[in-house]
Write a structure and sequence with these properties.
The longest helix has 17 residues. It contains 9 helices and 7 strands, in the order βααααβαββαβαβαβα. It is elongated, with a radius of gyration of 18 Å. By secondary structure, the chain is α/β, with parallel strands linked by helices. 33% of the residues are buried. It has a 7-stranded mixed β-sheet with strand order 4-3-2-1-5-6-7, sandwiched between helices.
């Protein structure tokens, strides 16, 4: 009996911009607050980005119910649900996001409630957003390395600065629908724009892991 476990692959995906619209851009457009349009595609420092967002929300007296209302009218990106279901038929799939469980639920329900690891807001009794606490620092990378410690080969895809450490830590990683500034800073990463292309490369990567010896 072999002491080496069989090779297994696990796929991790970012959420906003990959499977769903950018929530903060939708919020900015709905509430007519242009300063909320800045996202992780623009700002590498997530803590700095969220501190700025919270300041803007407080300035405009925007609470959790306002955000939830905007999200209730959003739908996943076209083709994302079929893509996700195809992946889930082949691999364990975990969504890793810097969004918040306090408002992402309606979009996850439309994707048939995939497994999502994200953050949580600190809310007051009246629904004001007091603060947020990251689950851990650099949680996407930490999740990938933890899965690898469980002897999974991890394949990752994301679109923003906050996905790069996750992609770099993975055994194979891709940019998906990333903006030009992220692509230009990371020309070493293969950048894709179509779900069919990403699905194909994930399958090819998994097959290589299956047949190649571990280094």
């Amino acid at each position: 009996m072999s002491s080496t476990p069989p090779k297994q692959c696990l796929v991790v995906l970012d959420v906003e911009g990959v499977l769903t619209p950018e929530i903060w851009i939708a919020l900015a457009e709905s509430l007519e607050i242009d300063s909320l349009k800045r996202t992780t595609k623009d700002e590498p420092d997530y803590q700095l980005l969220m501190n700025g967002r919270l300041d803007i929300l407080h300035e405009h007296n925007v609470g959790i119910e306002d955000i939830q209302e905007v999200i209730s009218f959003l739908s996943p990106l076209e083709g994302s649900k079929d893509f996700l279901h195809k992946l889930q038929a082949e691999f364990p799939v975990i969504l890793l996001s810097d969004t918040f469980e306090d408002f992402i639920g309606p979009l996850m329900e439309q994707l048939d409630n995939p497994t999502l690891l994200c953050h949580k807001l600190n809310l007051s009794d009246d629904g004001s957003i007091l603060d947020f606490q990251p689950r851990v620092q650099d949680q996407k990378k930490q999740a990938v390395t933890s899965f690898q410690e469980l002897n999974y080969k991890v394949i990752a895809a994301g679109d923003s600065y906050n996905d790069l450490s996750m992609i770099d830590a993975a055994d194979r990683g891709f940019l998906f629908r990333a903006p030009d500034n992220v692509r230009s800073e990371r020309p070493d990463l293969l950048a894709l724009d179509a779900y069919d292309d990403l699905y194909k490369l994930i399958l090819e990567s998994a097959e290589k892991f299956r047949i190649e010896p571990d280094s």
